[in-house]
Fold each of these.
Amino acid sequence: MSEYQPSKIEPKWQAFWEEKKTFKAEIDKSKEKYYVLDMFPYPSGNGLHVGHVENYAGSDIFARYKMAKGFNVLHPMGWDSFGLPTEQYALKTGIHPKEITETNINVFKKQLKNLGLGYDWDRELRTSDPDYYKWTQWIFLQLYNRNLAYIAETPVNWCPELGTVLANEEVQDGKSEVGGFPVIRKPMRQWMLRITEYADRLLDDLDLLDWPESLKEMQRNWIGKSLGAEVDFKIDPDSLDTQANIRVYTTRPDTLFGATYMVLSPEHALVNLITSEEQKAAVETYIKTAATKSDRARSDDSKEKTGVFTGAYAINPVNDTKIPIWIADYVLASYGTGAIMAVPAHDVRDYAFAKKFDLPIIQVVSGGNIEEEAYTGDGLLMNSGLIDGLAVPEAKAKISAWLQEEGLGQKAVNYKLRDWLFSRQRYWGEPFPIILKEDGTHAALPEEMLPLCLPEVEDYKPNAAGEPPLSRAIDWVNAPENGKRETNTMPQWAGSCWYYLRFLDPDNTKMVIDPEKEKYWMPVDLYVGGTEHAVLHLLYARFWHKVLYDCGVVTTKEPFQRIVNQGMILGIAYEYYEEAETKKVLSWKDLSDDLSTLKRTVHADDVRWVVEGDMRKAFHPDHDIELLPLTEKMSKSRGNVVNPDDVIAEFGADTLRMYVMFMGPFEQSKPWDTKSVTGVSRFVNRIWRLVCEGAGLSDKIADGEMDKDTLRVLHKTIKRVSEDTENLRFNTAIAAMMECVNHLYKIDSVPTECVETLTKLLAPYAPHLSEELWERLGHKESIIDAGWPTYNEAFLAVDTIELGVQVMGKVRGTIQIAPDASEEVAVAAAKENETIIPHLEGKTIRRIIYKEGRILNFVVS
RNA sequence: GCCGGAGUGGCGGAAUUGGUAGACGCGUCGGAUUCAAAAUCCGAUGGCUUUGCGGUCGUGCGGGUUCGAUUCCCGCCUCCGGUACCA
């Protein structure tokens, strides 16, 4: 075997690692632990895509690097195997979700192994395994017992297409996150988790974490804490016989004097009570339309405000003015008190509403132009009685104190975060360990009865009465003596809320986790995954972790100390156009406004390349039209998906791993370009040819001392690769190794020691290749045990450097000089330099700026 | 709208605390090797200008600070991600 043949060496080393259990992690208190975690995949039928490769190759490189550095590394993998697509596939095919899951996991696992990822497979778990979900149910019972789980009849996001409800977090633009189906509001009986009780801790503890700022910010925004005041407005006695108040929440109590009307949400409890006879019909119609409108429709209408007058009035407590009460759907029932005081002068929404319905606008903060738009900035209070002339912050403080004294209001805090809608009307999820009793109460299933396994059903659709699929398992439902089983199941997030803990003790049948193991391994030191989980999974998992902390199950406040989001890999397709009527094929160059065209794309593999000068242009394979490259998120419909299996078949896993890392910064999204894989492929081949010859070593590899240059290059490479890998700058680490190899090609003989060191640096990146080289270099053990090289600063030194010489800040030449040369020496050398002399001629040197080893600059006049 | 991030050759991307912009790779051009091609190896490669040395312009745009700005400050533009009537 003289050629580099990844298809031969890669399976060999994968088998080696598996047999030797190279990546098995066990508690070893003599070593420092390091827990690297990947966001575990949902085993879909589509298999692995290059986005997974980016994620897992990155964490694998880092884990192997830490291992080589002597850390006791835990790097596990498992399956988030409950979920909707599997159930939908089961519905279509009649195959049991368990079997579908099994099949998909086998495909995924094989693909992951083909990539040479170093996982401790002995810790493999899947969320749909009863031995696993037993403990998911157990954790639910802890929540239940702490009164953090409750049943509520509330309007929920119902997705008719999916036949289930969705959490707020799962709805985007009024459509389901999975499948993109329309979602409507519908009142239903549901399980809720009191995540709002943890809002402050979830917010405050973000400060403890080493997460990307943008990710923390997303969580902060989602929790959406705001400080303000609640104020009571009396309803005008003429409008209502009994005495009643409308309580509002506001962040701007300073603008109270500018409140010229009030708005209740259509669902507000007082609406029926206060509506006057004349307005009754209009109000009822409005409520009816608002109720049937989906969130989607409501937000579509957000530009145009709607609402109706109730006929009732309230009294502004600060100036006893009578102000009208309206209802409008721009006020949300679920936020604050479901009612607002409207200050049109200083709130854009109130302003739009007041303009539309011709309500009075009174400016109370100076600034802006109230004729044109609402003024939301700072300024001095005006038209505001006791707070006149104060700045906004002072006015807020003073009016709040006054409200408190008068018993009209108090400070209040609000959150955007709502309780977590935790039940789904699905089959393929964890059953609730709950018995619904005949008297309408409910009770926890005793712990000894866990796991409560999913019953078999003949069909995964809801039953005839529209109840969840589990209702079809009549015996199962009616098994408890004094009641029935809950037939909802838990959402997919449940299992992924705590899997990082189970990896530490996957086979424990006695308890959720052995405290000793938790203490040793937690927290997760590095969690790598995509930004798509920035709010959903990460918020839910933090919440459960904090509950477990309160239960004494875990000892860290937070589960994931550091998170890194790998960038998305984008696909390239090449676009052209088709004239709508004639189907004539057009280039982007042929487009004009009066043509009606459809966009079409050509897959990157099918493009015909034409070289023109130093450029290559993309052409349509069958037509003479130039194509425009289009970089987008990979998806089947866009025809720009890259399958990692194909890349492995052509180039090998080591090349794929390195190319994905070499494309650009780990956290940045970047376009996949199959043509560019050749660069990394050549590099891998160059290493192979440098070291290997036939079945053994190349003659070029010989014992002996490294020359000074080679020693310097090698130690510089150690330095750069170590620092870059530590900081997850994999792209520049690979560039450094390329430079090193380029140097080794220039010298006649490469000392063994030099190749060995380079191989160690390469090992996390191209593990199969490195093991093969290491073996050929005469080693019996895995290269993982060979340690990580260190560099010697002394070898990095050079005799002379090329120093840039500037005149007036412009580089005019360079001089060869010792790196630590004195200013006199440098200036003398510069003054003798032919290219610099003309720039100094006839000028007076006013100033000399010399930074040793960096720059020499003459300021002249 | 708001929040976060980014704009550097034909392309992906480098550049430590402000100090020779364009590392590394792709592509392109030239050479070696070959009967020939592929593969491989060596070299060149920001634009304009110059026979050449060189000159000049260049890090989204406009200003500023500085001996010196991709880097710092002010004001814009564009793109990507998130979020959206949260009072």
Amino acid sequence: MLVALRSSRLLTSHHNADRAFRMEQQQAIYGFLGELQMENYRAREEDVDVWILRLLEEGSVDAANLNDCCLSGDLPAPSPSPDANDNGHVGIYRIDAELLNFNYLTGPRKSGPRGTRKRRTSPWNSMFYTSRKNNSRWTAKEVERLVQGVSKFGVGRWTNLKQNFFKRSIRTAVNLKDKWRNLLKTYQVHKKLHSCILNHRWWNGSGSWQKNNKCSTYRNDDLVIV
DNA sequence: GTAGGGTTAGCC
DNA sequence: GGCTAACCCTAC
């Protein structure tokens, strides 16, 4: 599975008229990713297929609605589906407190919690070591706030996100960007999700939705899963 | 200010 | 030694 972000396009090519609608779509997409990722911390050693199916069954993640968020920059926007709400928008974004109630730091992990790390200050001053600025692992609450922030402001608005969600935090805008990148990276690792999601309705690339596993592309302006 | 490649340190 | 996550560096 390839997940590619095209955030720069998001913020530059959209018409103002549909900007709000597209932002809501974006929120849905990243909320979905956030839920996947955060649950992933808890269920890292579990069968991902079973796990995502459970989420779908519980309704925590609605793959059908997710598909309704799909838009291609090259293809016409699909009509809102019957699953959409009264506004014609989809709203799968939801951070479930139960999903976040996991043992973030002590749960089963391939790599355990990291302690304080140190590094050389510079190649020519290698005799001295100094601590990095933060050296702390992200907490579940921080991840939650990051996902909320990205869902609200979108990817690439790290300074804005910092000011609104991490104002008193040690995390810098760059830290937020890097953490989000790590989250998506981990998300990509679980390729089994691909076949699972493809079993649900999917944009077939030729103007209609279908519910089978023949389609191989999920796409919107900001996210491409191939 | 941001994106993306590079570096580092902890854990297996 | 490999993998991973947090952090650093730098071009744009």
